Amino acid sequence: MGACALTVVALAATWLVAFSSVFGVRSVIVRGTQLLSAHQVEDAARISHGTPLLRLNEAAVTRRIEQLPEVGSAEVTTSFPSTVTITITERVPVGYLKQGNGFVLVDHTGEQYRTTGTRPAKLPLFVVPSGADARSSGGALAIVAAALPARIRAKTASIQALNPQAITLVLKDGRVVQWGSADRSTEKARVLVALLPHAAAQLDVSNPDQPFTR
Fold first, then answer.
1. Model confidence pLDDT, tens digit, residues 116-175
2. With left for phi above 0 and alpha for psi between -120 and 50, is residue 50 left, alpha or beta?
3. C-alpha distances out from residue 135 to 111, 113, 157, 165, 183, Å
4. Which residues pair with 163 in a beta bridge?
5. Own/partner pairs for 116-122, CB < 8 Å, 24+ apart?
6. What pTM was computed for the model?
7. Helix, strand, or coil here: 81?
8. Is-contact 65 121, C-beta < 8 A?
9. Residue 30 in 3-state DSSP?
10. Cα(162)–Cα(176) distance, rounded to whole angstroms?
11. CA distance 23 to 84
């Protein structure tokens, strides 16, 4: 086969793979959805069927999907001849804020991402000050809530912060836990689990090396 023929074959192959719909998108698989439907994710992705896989901008598709409030992260992959797979990780609430007649779910990053009309039964209410400390305090409360085991989180009525350094938990049985700052929250959570069996109205884990009850 001459050089000219080889060039023609190469050009034809390039056109077939990169520009024709022969190796274009025919199916989109969505994984990881619970709150969202696959249809909602596909709508956000805006992938045109027939788009050649080699020309699909995976980064742009990922960015569009991650604009959905419920999505914490997304991964978009392609596989020949014609499949796009979207794997998402949805946000998981660790607490909520009261806002008007609704309740705003908050994830472990402090992101306020979804409003619901029903008070979450197994999540603590976040109580934060208004003004300059509101955002930083909200983020600190999210760190604390995420550190709690789910069974302890479900027993917590509220997590409150006068400021990011003065965090308090109010349990559903009325007991109060002085937490201090969000620093060392994982250690503090372990200490709290050990202290809860004690019949004490107040528990202090602000220094997890020297906790006490009274």
1. 999 999 999 999 887 766 778 889 999 999 999 999 999 999 999 988 899 999 999 999
2. left
3. 10, 14, 21, 13, 17
4. 166
5. 120/93, 120/96, 121/154, 122/150, 122/153, 122/154
6. 0.82
7. coil
8. no
9. strand
10. 15
11. 11
The per-residue pLDDT for 72 is 95
Structure-block tokens of residue 117: 């009309």
Residue partners of 208: CB distance under 8 A and separation at least 6: 184, 187, 188, 190, 191
Residue 10, pLDDT above cutoff 50: no
H helix or E strand, kind and range, residue 211: none
CB-CB contact of 117 with 88 (8 Å): no
Report the C-alpha gap between 87 and 12 in whole angstroms: 33
- Token output for 164: 């990011």
Q: First and final CA of the chain: distance in angstroms?
A: 91
Phi then psi for residue 170, to 5 deg, are -115, 115
Amino acid in position 197 = P
| Closest CA relative to residue 186, chosen from 129, 153, 144 | 144
210's tokens:
């020297």
Comparing C-alpha atoms, which of 201, 99, 106, 89 is closest to residue 144? 106
Tokens of 137: 């305090």
Q: Does the structure show a pLDDT above 70 at 87? A: yes
